[in-house]
Amino acid sequence: MPEITSRPAEEPTAKGSDRTRRSAWHRKASAPVSVWLVALLAVVIGGHWIPQQRWLLVHMVTLGVATTSILVWGQYFTESILHEKLGEMDRKRQVWRIRILNLGVLACCVGMVPSWPWVVVAGASVVGLAMCWYAIDLGLQVRRALPGRFDATVRFYSAAACLLPLGAIAGAIMAFSPEEPWRTRLLMAHQGLNIMGFVGLTAVGTLVTLWPTVLRTRMQPSQDRNGRRALWIMCAAVLVMTAGSLGGWWWLEAAGVLAELAGLCVVGVDLVRCAMKKPPRDFPGYSMGAAIIWFAIWLGWLAGTILIKRDHLLQEDVTALTVPVVVGFLLQLLLGAMSYLMPMVMGGGPAIVRATNAKMHTLGALRATVTNAGLVIWALATGTWTTRIGLGLAILGMAGFLPAMVAMVKTGVGMLRATRAAAVGRANHSPEDRSGTREREKGAPASKMRASTNHPAPAPTAPTSRRSFAGAAIGLGAALGAVAVGRRLDGTSTDSSSTGAGATATGRTTTVAITMKDMHYHPSSVEVPAGNRLVVQLHNADPEQTHDLYFASGATSRRLAPGQSQTVDAGIITAPTQGWCTIVGHRSMGMELDVTVGGAAASQAAGSTATARRKVDLTKAPGKGFRTRDAKLPALLAGRDHAMTLTVTESVQEVAPGATITAMTYDGRVMGPAIHARMGDTMDVHLVNRGTMGHSIDFHAGTVSPNAVMRTISPGASLDYRFTLHRSGIWLYHCSTMPMSSHIAAGMYGAVVVPPHDLARADREYLLVQSETYLDAANGKEVDADKIAAETPDLTMFNGHANQYVFAPLTAKVGERVRIWVLAAGPSRGISFHVVGTQFDTVFKEGAYLLRPDNAEGGGSQALDLASAQGGFVEMVFEEPGRYTFVNHSFVEMERGARGLIEVVS
């Protein structure tokens, strides 16, 4: 096997030697890793105040820490395997490549937080080009070197590096928020290429040679051969999985993931044999071994998820374990490998390497135990506090790497300086003095020789077994204590003044069966003796709707699809409390569960109250990532039979400058696509639900029985809706799933425009659909159902965004006839539509003309008044150039965003 440990130095290393230059290169090249680790801690501490925190956690690890480390240590292993040392110019070029890579990573992070997709594309392009450069360099090194036993590993390094640019392309496309099913398909391809491909191939290829070295044992006779087989299997697995993802073939996706797991098992057999022969005894062994176990767990879980969900697989299903696997597998593997390799690279001889190793492995068993116990708690916990504590433990365990690294560098640099000083001192002696010194050293005890060069006594490379056992026991005890604290915090009511507060735990458990159906929990109230633990056996019996259960203490279930069940531990009940469904609007429809203690009334503090309106600065322009909705009425659909697909998705979208909601949409935007067709045309609409809850659609333009076509469909399901356009008008369509008000306020509405037979031609034709929305106090949240019930909207919008046409005005010319179709989508407010500076000579409302240009009275109109779900159009001719304002003349609605401009030129 290749030599990857430091070589004993016969004489102290002189300044400017190859080893010194090599060590200095590693310090420069690895510097960004430390920066990213510190930034990672800042993001964790920043918590939910940092936008896109989950995304940043994943990509700061995968791109910032992991990719940089792979470039550094992949080159180190390549040189060791190929027995090739690069020159000074090659070193400088590699450092510049790493700097360029990190500029690309930084651009990706900067672009994703405020949703600037083109910045993300630029960053991903830089990352992809840097990795292609790295892959080409590895290939050239293999070509120059003589054939060796492990040169195939370097070829796989190069192949793995070629996969990351492909994964970056998928990630860049995802920055534009594609709709389902492409959102999930691209995410699966992204994870397959990056985690299974780039990271998985590099990690397994390295472990074939590094694992026995870390354990200080010989490789298994079959290890090289099995490593080659495994790497080929895993390469094929990545390609199969990616093809299945992009093609939407779930069975091919699952086959690819299972093949990756099989490849890992092929090489894993030899890794286990090495560990059985000589078990891990220090931090690198513990950390790297645990990392591979996390990778295997993730692959098995991912394959099982694909096989269970099949065609109903959604992005939320795929990302459930993304953060634990990225931290548990990728970051932990890197920290373990770096903890072993950094003292080797620093070098300086056996004594110095032993001393720096001892510093690097300080409290290794404790750190590894705390890290992995925290990750298990984080992945499995259901309570809010327990989850947070698990995350904190995992980060705390990994953060121990930084002080250990600082102590290692300080120790190594100090010993190297002392060694060089001793060497200079010997060189300054006369030949006779040096001869006498050598004669004295031959007979001097080893302890005195060490004292003469000021070396500290070398510490053992690994801690003793007793010390490792004690560290692991302390770490496990800390984790169990943290779980107990978390469960206590999750299970105890915060209302200490309520009846039953201060009651001691009885040690008994009250178990109740709760069924969810028709927007209620059955039963809706349960009584628990004070001090008993409450366990809820939850079942969703609703045939169409998704529901969950969240308690005021933080205990919660996952979102349960129809027919699914889950047991929820609500903790020790010491005071009245309440649970409710967190899906937007469901609580306001009656999905509340009252928990009483000894017959006491439910806590009123847990009830809902309408919050104050949120202030939004409408003088600002829309965000840079927002694309103004084209207000031009689409052209008439060709033909008379129109087939179309509407896909339901949920995503965070801007609805005003600096204000975002978790929107529910048809085809990816607040306000669905406008449909423009003739009377007598037939519509065939295929509705696909790619959201996380039940949705539906109601076309006011059709005259059909609502029983089948307007029913709520579960996530992953679809239905077909066929109707004929019998009458003219502008017709609303919207989600009819209860509560309708929440679904419409979240963006699920649109317009069908059916012109009357005798409609004359207009020079310009626009469509304006007014709606209102109700904001949570924080961005990116679901609409506030309490505000909807209290009728206190925060924004009133045209075409899904407040004031967008103030900054992107509609256009017209003097003398042109301009027709504006207007629809009040609600969910509750109507409109008095007015254009400042002109008059309407034509008004069409709810299927009939109220005013024509040639009316006998010579009259005109100043406003079109519409109640919620009503529509019509107005026509006007501008006589002078200028900037005209259109508004909802109910001015409070105008001041909330129902305003725009028409730029009229000569």
TrEMBL record:
<dbReference type="InterPro" id="IPR008972">
    <property type="entry name" value="Cupredoxin"/>
</dbReference>
<keyword id="KW-0677">Repeat</keyword>
<feature type="binding site" description="type 1 copper site">
    <location>
        <position position="889"/>
    </location>
    <ligand>
        <name>Cu cation</name>
    </ligand>
</feature>
<comment type="similarity">
    <text>Belongs to the multicopper oxidase family.</text>
</comment>
<feature type="binding site" description="type 1 copper site">
    <location>
        <position position="735"/>
    </location>
    <ligand>
        <name>Cu cation</name>
    </ligand>
</feature>
<feature type="binding site" description="type 1 copper site">
    <location>
        <position position="700"/>
    </location>
    <ligand>
        <name>Cu cation</name>
    </ligand>
</feature>
<feature type="transmembrane region" description="Helical">
    <location>
        <begin position="363"/>
        <end position="383"/>
    </location>
</feature>
<feature type="binding site" description="type 1 copper site">
    <location>
        <position position="734"/>
    </location>
    <ligand>
        <name>Cu cation</name>
    </ligand>
</feature>
<feature type="transmembrane region" description="Helical">
    <location>
        <begin position="288"/>
        <end position="308"/>
    </location>
</feature>
<dbReference type="Pfam" id="PF07732">
    <property type="entry name" value="Cu-oxidase_3"/>
</dbReference>
<feature type="compositionally biased region" description="Basic and acidic residues">
    <location>
        <begin position="429"/>
        <end position="443"/>
    </location>
</feature>
<feature type="region of interest" description="Disordered">
    <location>
        <begin position="1"/>
        <end position="25"/>
    </location>
</feature>
<keyword id="KW-0479">Metal-binding</keyword>
<feature type="transmembrane region" description="Helical">
    <location>
        <begin position="231"/>
        <end position="251"/>
    </location>
</feature>
<feature type="transmembrane region" description="Helical">
    <location>
        <begin position="29"/>
        <end position="50"/>
    </location>
</feature>
<dbReference type="GO" id="GO:0005507">
    <property type="term" value="F:copper ion binding"/>
</dbReference>
<keyword id="KW-0560">Oxidoreductase</keyword>
<feature type="transmembrane region" description="Helical">
    <location>
        <begin position="188"/>
        <end position="211"/>
    </location>
</feature>
<keyword id="KW-0812">Transmembrane</keyword>
<dbReference type="InterPro" id="IPR011707">
    <property type="entry name" value="Cu-oxidase-like_N"/>
</dbReference>
<protein>
    <recommendedName>
        <fullName>Copper-containing nitrite reductase</fullName>
        <ecNumber>1.7.2.1</ecNumber>
    </recommendedName>
</protein>
<feature type="transmembrane region" description="Helical">
    <location>
        <begin position="56"/>
        <end position="74"/>
    </location>
</feature>
<feature type="transmembrane region" description="Helical">
    <location>
        <begin position="95"/>
        <end position="113"/>
    </location>
</feature>
<dbReference type="InterPro" id="IPR001287">
    <property type="entry name" value="NO2-reductase_Cu"/>
</dbReference>
<comment type="subunit">
    <text>Homotrimer.</text>
</comment>
<dbReference type="GO" id="GO:0050421">
    <property type="term" value="F:nitrite reductase (NO-forming) activity"/>
</dbReference>
<feature type="binding site" description="type 1 copper site">
    <location>
        <position position="748"/>
    </location>
    <ligand>
        <name>Cu cation</name>
    </ligand>
</feature>
<feature type="binding site" description="type 1 copper site">
    <location>
        <position position="743"/>
    </location>
    <ligand>
        <name>Cu cation</name>
    </ligand>
</feature>
<feature type="region of interest" description="Disordered">
    <location>
        <begin position="423"/>
        <end position="466"/>
    </location>
</feature>
<feature type="transmembrane region" description="Helical">
    <location>
        <begin position="156"/>
        <end position="176"/>
    </location>
</feature>
<keyword id="KW-0186">Copper</keyword>
<dbReference type="Pfam" id="PF13473">
    <property type="entry name" value="Cupredoxin_1"/>
</dbReference>
<feature type="transmembrane region" description="Helical">
    <location>
        <begin position="320"/>
        <end position="342"/>
    </location>
</feature>
<feature type="binding site" description="type 1 copper site">
    <location>
        <position position="695"/>
    </location>
    <ligand>
        <name>Cu cation</name>
    </ligand>
</feature>
<feature type="compositionally biased region" description="Basic and acidic residues">
    <location>
        <begin position="8"/>
        <end position="21"/>
    </location>
</feature>
<dbReference type="InterPro" id="IPR028096">
    <property type="entry name" value="EfeO_Cupredoxin"/>
</dbReference>
<feature type="transmembrane region" description="Helical">
    <location>
        <begin position="389"/>
        <end position="409"/>
    </location>
</feature>
<dbReference type="InterPro" id="IPR045087">
    <property type="entry name" value="Cu-oxidase_fam"/>
</dbReference>
<feature type="domain" description="EfeO-type cupredoxin-like">
    <location>
        <begin position="504"/>
        <end position="569"/>
    </location>
</feature>
<feature type="transmembrane region" description="Helical">
    <location>
        <begin position="119"/>
        <end position="136"/>
    </location>
</feature>
<keyword id="KW-1133">Transmembrane helix</keyword>
<feature type="domain" description="Plastocyanin-like">
    <location>
        <begin position="655"/>
        <end position="756"/>
    </location>
</feature>
